[in-house]
């Protein structure tokens, strides 16, 4: 859902000095492929003596419970350092700290095309309707962080163009519908 190339994610991890573990699984209409891949990854972590996994979730109770239950069934614990932090304060603190982030994807029904590919900044936050979470916690938008105080060096990027993709979804009334998203095609500069 981010539309970011694997090469950029690798450069991001390198600049942050973080280990990057990649998990590949086929897309499917259910969660089985994801759960199979995660369980295989947990097998690897267990061999390394790792028993805690961190998540950036802030307030989605059902997602937290899902993560905790799945990890607990394998003897792992989930850590949520941002849990229940007010998202408006978290977004402003992130910007104030000096992180530079581009909006790489957004729900076209909620976020104007003009913001996609631009920096996540105070202007963007002030433009958001009250129904959109300032951190995109409900999936309203996604971003790619390319610079900040924890980066060894900034990642030079350019936005080549903005494209729209539509996806078939199942609506709450059981009927099929379409969901539209903007994506910024971000590449190395």
TrEMBL record:
Gene3D superfamilies: HUPs, putative n-type atp pyrophosphatase, domain 2. Residues 2-164 form the Diphthamide synthase domain. It comes from the Bacteria. Coiled coil: none annotated. SUPFAM superfamilies: Adenine nucleotide alpha hydrolases-like (SSF52402). It holds the Pfam family Diphthami_syn_2. This is Diphthamide synthase domain-containing protein. It comes from Algoriphagus jejuensis.
